[in-house]
Amino acid sequence: MSGRHPRTFFKPLVVGAPRPFTDETRPRNVERMIHFVGFHDPKMAAKGEEMLRAGSVDVMLGNFEDAVPVDQKPAARGAFVKMLRSLGTGDKKAGLWIRTNQLGSTDFMDDMEVVKASSGAIDVVMIPKVECSADIIRVDWLLAQIEAAAGFEKPIMLHAILETAEGVERILDIACSSPRLHGMSLGPADLAADRGMKTTRVGGPHPDYGTFADAEVPGMPRAFHQGELWHYTMGRLVDACKTAGIKPFYGPFGDFKDLVGCEAQFRNAAIMGCDGAWTLHPTQVEIARRVFSPDPKDLLTARRIVAAMPDGNGAVMIDGKMQDDATWKQAMIFLVQAEQIVGKEGETARTRYFGPALPPNDPRIIPRTFEGRSALALASTGNSRQMA
Ligand code: GLV
Ligand code: MG
Q: What's the gap between Cα 84 and its chain centre?
């Protein structure tokens, strides 16, 4: 047996530390974008604080690792702690995360001082270059010590970046290592370097990675189809995270001018099952908000499926297409996601997702999902044979 026994898996590691979250208690926050802010730059720090107070991003992350010059890391930590001290109750309108330096650097312990000074306001600590479950377990103990000593009420969660070949090979062990794990992100820049990939980009496709179509007419040019460089890794990431019940995320897209390319990468990740992506530039925030929110067209289809088979049993035809227990579960993904966004954004989102009436012959499903039981409750109790 590797790892902790199921009996002790959810016990606090240190006497007096808060109990780790379980599937039932873990926060269900909307996290479409993790917005990176370099607190070493006073202008960026002020903007980050403004975003946190206004809730204009889902998550604001104070970055202490790569992209922060080594000699400015102390200033970044200092500015972040100053912001923490200025926050009053209720001022924080977005998730508050930090990215530490890697475990093998002395900077890491300096980053932990920020956690100590946070009075429990930091929701998630992102750890770079995680390679095995022992990396997570080490930080797990350290956080439990800090939480117990400082009397934090809720556990701080951990988020791992997948950015080494070894990390990819051990991904399932990492994902299942601790109940403290929130999710994982792809780190395509470091991963490319570690793998010896031939690219100088931060995420995104490569123009020379692809295949030629068969020659149709001898002598005529053959069409070139660019391939998706990250598909294999994203598949591993999504499957490991879903196995462990944690959240998968796309990472950074470094070409800030290429909004179309950024949208395509984020959309692929969303379709494959990711909850969000990193945003490094303000123009990427709206892309992530749009792409990781359900499309109202999909919502309408989802509502029609659930309306036609409320308990998710059997099979029906809608517009000539078969729907059954499995597509009911697919529909619930959209409904639960929309319900969470309505919870965060209120009436405008409710109108966008549940305003348009279903076609005349469809029964209305809104009373079933939103005026009685929530979509989330329906997803976990309706057809529980299969959702369990
Ligand atoms: C992110 O940290 C990356 O290396 O892509
Ligand atoms: Mg990196």
A: 23
